[in-house]
Amino acid sequence: MSTENTARPSSSIHGIWTKRWTFILAASGSAIGLGNIWKFPYITGENGGSAFVLIYLACIFAIGIPIMIAETMLGRRGRKSPIETMRDMIAASNASGFWLIIGLMGTLAGILILSYYSVIAGWALGYIPKLASGEFAGVTGASANAIFSGEQGFLSDYKTLIFWHSVFTIVTVYIVGKGIKTGLERAVRFLMPALVLLLLILLVYSAIEGDFAKGAQFLFAFDASKLNWNSALVALGHAFFTLSLGMGSIMAYGAYMPQQDSIAKTITLVAVLDTAIALIAGLVIFPLVFAHGIEPGAGPGLMFISLPLAFGNISGGAIFGTLFFILVSMAAWTSAIALLEPAVCWLIERFKMGRQKAALLLGGIAWVLGLGSVFSFNIWQEYKLMDTFTVFDGLDFLTSNIMLPLGGLFIALFVGWVMKPEVVDAEIDMQNSSLRTAWWFVLRYIAPAAVALVFVLGVYNKFAS
Ligand code: PHE
Q: Could you state, in order of their start, the residue ranges of all structural domains in the chain?
């Protein structure tokens, strides 16, 4: 039985986006989040700046976009949750059940990422009242650091962290529970433009108040001496993370994409927007970091130490700082929704569970797992797996640097080599034939080879050193 000949659904049981713009807003809502604003700057700082940025950009354009087109195509072709979509695609291609791993591992990765994502988003929520109350007025580097990670600091107070982690999770569960139309569509329509606007205001602000030349040089002046395979793996993993790629999110959203839209054009637009926002976030943060003598490699706390310090020392800083942390929290919500969606859809389809019940159940699981990440920054910070990983570090490494790249690799191989090329071509419907040839070549050869190489050498480098 082949799906080409049977009538395919032009819509999904979970709904369909009303307009092309709605898909673009939702997909960029998923892509743009803590990855752009919190994670990109801190891992760029940890990995030495510009050379890392260059690899990251190469990974986005040479590997990320082609695989993202493939993943979206799978979603629109299947119009179901990632797991059930993969089941259908496997049947239609007479392929081995092995490929179900794309749906299974991705859905699991979503819940694992959500567990720590909502903890970090909780930090951002917790910082809104702190900035609004003027707590940072006149702080020094040492005191901004103490407020965040000192003995009596924000991170040490795990009850407060659990409170904000809970608030974030409850709102996420509520929005996902309301369903794709009423919840997501309404949320992103308002959130995304607001976010871009706020970030641009902050960019102007940082260009005036920060050390812009030094910040820009750190991000863009190529310095190969900082390169190693593990940094390359972090850059690759982050390219997947920031594009919401390799775990079914974009597949689940693709299921709601109208049939006549061009996947390649839409996805390229989303990826460019996502990358631009990360670079703007970097250009907001690093000039402030350098103007205030903060260590660029300060780790996950970079944004939470550098920005309040800067905001605390200039006029209007409390207002800009409050706005900034509201912006980060909003961006995190539209991403968290995408992390939860694949698993929720699957429970609905497979077990006929109600949407609200499914969201509550999975949100609950992620919330409990998230406690491990909360404690990684206080009472469990000494417990390290293999002398390296706290629970938070371990989950981040496992998901970003293992599961997402592997998921992306499997998607490239499945779409490139296993599916019938005519089916793929018909669904993607690329008008420009040289672009289509280039896409096939990259998907079949370049992307799998590059991911495999960076993955193997990066993991080796991580554990050999
Ligand atoms: N892309 C989101 C971010 O950058 C995180 C995310 C990853 C969301 C995977 C969905 C799926 O913050």
A: 20-464
